[in-house]
Specification:
It is a single chain. This protein is mainly alpha-helical. The protein contains six helices and no strands. The chain has helices spanning 2-6, 15-34, 39-51, 58-69, 76-90, 108-128. Helix 4 crosses helix 6 (108-128). The longest helix is centred in the C-terminal third of the chain and has 21 residues, at 108-128. It is elongated, with a radius of gyration of 18 Å. The protein starts with a helix and ends with a helix. 15% of the residues are buried. The model has no long low-confidence stretch (mean pLDDT 94).
């Protein structure tokens, strides 16, 4: 739940989704232990099952762009509010990207999305300033 909330996933308030994921992760852990895996390895498999498709959020990617590319324009203490306000305005940029792909960060699509978001943020700041 913390991961979902911190990264502003829409599923953060979906109790059924959270319960299903938790149950599945527990099953993965139990099966791994029955298969004689050490607790650490079983825990790693369970966490992977828990986070499948939830490694990249629109919010966290945009936050990274603002934090890395615009530190002089958007003060650290203003970044969260800025990203929260900007996210609905750039939501359509994400439409052609599969953020549920757990390997998304290693794909050329990630770099393309990052570049598009950087441009969108720069244009927004140029037109509207930091709000």
């Amino acid at each position: 739940m913390d991961h979902l909330r911190e990264n502003r996933f829409p599923q953060a308030n979906d109790a059924d989704f959270i319960r299903e994921r938790a149950d599945h992760a527990a099953e993965v852990y139990e099966q791994a232990r029955r298969d004689a895996l050490f607790a650490d390895a079983a825990q790693e498999l369970a966490m992977s099952a828990l986070l499948t498709g939830l490694r990249f959020s629109k919010y966290s990617i945009l936050y990274d762009v603002v934090d890395r590319e615009f530190p002089l324009e958007v003060a650290v203490e203003d970044q969260e509010a800025f990203v929260k306000n900007l996210l609905p305005l750039v939501d359509n940029v994400y439409s052609i990207y599969d953020l549920t792909d757990d390997d998304f960060a290693q794909s050329p699509d990630y770099d393309q999305l990052y570049t598009e978001l950087t441009g969108a943020v720069a244009l927004f700041i140029e037109s509207n300033g930091v709000q």
